[in-house]
Each structure stands twice: as structure tokens, then as C-alpha cells.
Design brief:
The complex is a heterodimer of chains A (about 110) and B (about 110). Chain A is mainly β. Chain A has no helices and eleven strands. In chain A, the strands form two sheets. In chain A, strands 2, 4, 5, 9, 10 and 11 form a six-stranded mixed sheet that branches. In chain A, about 40% of the residues are buried. By secondary structure, chain B is mainly β. In chain B, about 0% of the residues lie in helices and about 60% in strands. Chain B contains no helices and eleven strands. Chain B starts with a strand and ends with a strand. The chains are: A mainly beta (about 110), B mainly beta (about 110). Chains A and B meet through strand 4, strand 5, strand 9 and strand 10 of A and strand 4, strand 5, strand 9 and strand 10 of B.
Chain lengths: ~110, ~110
């Protein structure tokens, strides 16, 4: 089936540093979503992207819909301790149009060192 | 505003026992509803989704089933649990328009012993 490759799998950074993570696929996607999940809770939507090349910000978070429509990037600027958690990308492949079948990446586990 | 409720939050069940997890959405009508499972340290696996009452699409053949008896109610069931059914189960909703984002409940941690 369809898969999303999300990297890095985990990262340890110092407070104040910027963070970058990405998701790639061999298929074209219509939509890219980015979520954050805290331990024991459900994922919370951070940013939604709908057009190739789209760049959207949410506070210190910025995400981009890749021009090829096969990838997406999430950047976090000036990280703080509460940024810790697991970040997931999710996409809606063009090939499954009409089925609402989102595919999720395997997540990037972020730890911020104070 | 829309809210999603999922219960119970945690559940410990013996192998072979039945299962019923419930999810309800408030503040919207005719939502798309989803059940996902998340294994420890892993991504989310789509189990079932529904675009309307009584309409269920199954993504993974297994001993689980889903039902949508009311517009904003989604139930995940099993007649006999297996050890491999342990995991974190998440209910989600989206609006009826394609590509609308998913909004998740807080999940149910199921441990089958």
C-alpha cells in the first residue's frame, strides 16, 4: 500500500534551536496535514496544506507543500520545552480521491533539552 | 464548535472477551468518521471509515468491526479479543468535503491480557 517516509525518526535539540522535518512519498498527494501528539493523547492538527508550493505558518511553525506534490516540510523556529512530542505528517493521495483515506507517516519524536 | 468524545480512556480486557469502544461527535452533522489504531511508537493505521449512517468501509481484515447507528456515533467492536488487538485506538472526524482535515479524540488505551 501507499507509504509516507517521514524523517528524521527522532531528534534531540537544544532549546532555542530551529527544527526541520519532512515527509516524502512516491505518489502525488492532494493534501498534506501536520499533527502533534503528546503522550497518551490524540494527535492535534497543526497545519493543513492544499496547494503545491503553499507555505503556511502557525505561530513558530511553518509548513510547505512541495512543488512536486510528493513531499512536505515542517519547520519549528526557536524551539521551547513544550514542543516535545511526536509530529506526524498525513496525506491524501491523488490516486484515492473520493475515499477520504488519509495516510500517516511514522512520526518524528522531538525532544528539547533545556 | 465541534467536539469529539471517545471512551473509555483506558481498558484492560482478557483474551477472548468482547469489546465495545464508543465515539461521538458534537457540533456538526453528517461527519465522516474514522477508527485508527496506533501501535507503540508507530504511525496510525486506518481500520474503518464511514461517510454516513450504516455505511462502513473496512481497511484491514481482522476480528474487529465498526458500526454507525446514528449520524454522530461510531462504535468499534469485537466478539473475541486477541492479544494482538492491544494498542491505542483513535476516533476521528472530518467534514463531508474531500480533503478536509481529520480531528482526533483523545484515544482509548486497550490492553489485552
Amino acid at each position: 500500500g501507499q507509504q509516507l517516509n517521514q524523517s528524521p525518526q527522532s531528534m534531540f535539540i537544544q532549546e532555542g534551536e530551529d527544527v526541520s522535518m519532512n515527509c516524502t512519498s512516491s505518489s502525488i498527494f492532494n493534501t498534506w496535514l501536520w499533527y502533534k501528539q503528546d503522550p497518551g493523547e490524540g494527535p492535534v492538527l497543526l497545519i493543513a496544506l492544499y496547494k503545491a508550493g503553499e507555505l503556511t505558518s502557525n505561530g513558530r511553525l511553518t509548513a510547505q507543500f512541495g512543488i512536486t506534490r510528493k513531499d512536505s516540510f515542517l519547520n519549528i523556529s526557536a524551539s521551547i520545552p513544550s514542543d516535545v512530542g511526536i509530529y506526524f505528517c498525513a496525506g491524501l493521495p491523488l490516486s484515492t480521491s473520493g475515499t477520504y483515506k488519509y495516510i500517516f507517516g511514522t512520526g518524528t519524536r522531538l525532544k528539547v533539552l533545556a | 464548535s465541534q467536539t469529539i468524545h471517545q471512551w473509555p480512556a483506558t481498558l484492560v480486557q482478557p483474551v477472548g472477551s468482547p469489546l465495545s469502544l464508543e465515539c461521538t461527535v458534537e457540533g456538526t452533522s453528517n461527519p465522516n468518521l474514522y477508527w485508527y489504531r496506533q501501535a507503540a511508537g508507530r504511525g496510525l493505521q486506518l481500520l474503518f471509515y464511514s461517510v454516513g449512517i450504516g455505511q462502513i468501509s473496512s481497511e484491514v481484515p481482522q476480528n474487529l468491526s465498526a458500526s454507525r447507528p446514528q449520524d454522530r456515533q461510531f462504535i468499534l467492536s469485537s466478539k473475541k479479543l486477541l492479544l494482538s488487538d492491544s494498542g491505542f485506538y483513535l476516533c476521528a472526524w472530518s467534514s463531508g468535503t474531500e480533503a478536509s482535515p481529520l480531528h482526533f479524540g483523545n484515544g482509548t488505551r486497550l490492553t489485552v491480557t
